[in-house]
Amino acid sequence: MYNHILYFYFWLVNTLVLLGFGWIFPVDVVLGNWRFGMAEAAVYTGFWVTFLVWCFWDWAIAKKFRLDLTWFRLGYFGVVNVIAFWLASRLAVYSGFGITDFTVALFIAVPAGLLQQWVKTRILNLHHRHQMG
Q1: What pLDDT band is residue 1 in, cutting at 50, 70 and 90?
Q2: SS3 of residue 14 by DSSP
Q3: Residue 2's pLDDT is what?
Q4: Treating both helix axes as pointing N-terminal to C-terminal, what angle do 2-24 and 102-132 enclose, rounded to 10 degrees?
Q5: For 125, which DSSP code?
Q6: Crossing angle for the helix pair 38-62 and 70-90, to the nearest 10 degrees
Q7: By C-alpha distance, which of 5, 73, 81 is closest to 45?
Q8: Does 32 score more than 80 pLDDT?
Q9: Range of the domain at 94
């Protein structure tokens, strides 16, 4: 069950990061198109980014990557987040999300990845405490 909660919070984090960047850097991060408003685009893009991160996470587990090493996990998910945000921006017709260039994906991915790892740590701690008590 905690995986569903973790997925939801990753989605929420990605959505909030997108909204923040959209408000702070509206020239470089475009949220919304003829189909979606700003909030809708952030929610849809947040979902697809979370889905891609989850797919790469499952793949890394299947390949037995050393995700227990903090530096490796942060590096791996940093790259995964850059790819996920960039791919979502390339599909702007479906996501409503656009960026000016690849480096913007990097700037979005850094806080998103750090917040994802922070949320993961908090959810896992709560999960372990709930199992113990």
Answers
A1: low
A2: helix
A3: 64
A4: 150
A5: H
A6: 130
A7: 81
A8: yes
A9: 2-127
